[in-house]
Specification:
Elements (H helix, E strand, L loop, with lengths): L3 H21 L2 H19 L4 E5 L4 E5 L2 E3 L1 H38 L8 H34 L19
Antiparallel strand pairs: 1-2, 2-3
Length: 168
């Protein structure tokens, strides 16, 4: 009987790991983590200071100190509400799965560590690096486009065309 108990623990641990991989750490959780990282990044980096100044005759809207139109302000608030709503939905799923995982590990006295917080951190770093790289590339292209338009030598820049050498 004593030799059977370790074998049963091995089978139990195997079935527990199979359950976790199949029903807890699913593709849905991975997708929610990625979506939440994107939404958190958008919430953290998009305009932080929003002001509405209303007078008796006019209403002006400001995002990060820049005056914007009512339509731009409306699009901004819709975008931020979308990101906040989606982030909350993703966070709810992630918290539920994380709690379920911790409860399973604690109940079955497993040494396993919950990987979800580390995955969330990695996803946020990946999203942040991706968007930062994209912004740097846009700045680089914009700077070189402006520089090529202001070329000091005529015939150099985007307007230059290849012409075959004249014969003769």
């Amino acid at each position: 009987m004593y030799f059977l108990q370790p074998l049963l623990f091995i089978v139990r641990d195997y079935l527990l790991n199979l359950y976790v991989r199949k029903f807890v750490l699913t593709e849905e959780v991975h997708h929610a983590i990625q979506m939440r990282a994107t939404d958190v990044w958008a919430i953290n980096t998009k305009g932080k200071s929003v002001q509405v100044r209303a007078t008796q005759t006019d209403t002006t809207y400001f995002i990060d100190g820049q005056q914007v139109t009512e339509e731009q302000y409306s699009r901004y608030t819709q975008m931020m509400n979308f990101h906040r709503s989606r982030e909350a939905t993703s966070a709810e799923l992630i918290r539920a799965r994380s709690f379920q995982l911790e409860r399973l590990f604690r109940h079955y006295k497993q040494d396993g560590k919950n990987p979800i917080p580390a995955w969330e951190e990695q996803a946020y770093k990946r999203v942040s690096a991706s968007y930062n790289k994209s912004l740097e590339q846009k700045r680089y292209v914009r700077q070189h486009r402006v520089a090529s338009r202001r070329s000091p030598r005529p015939g150099i820049g985007p307007q230059r065309r290849f012409q075959p050498a004249a014969k003769g």
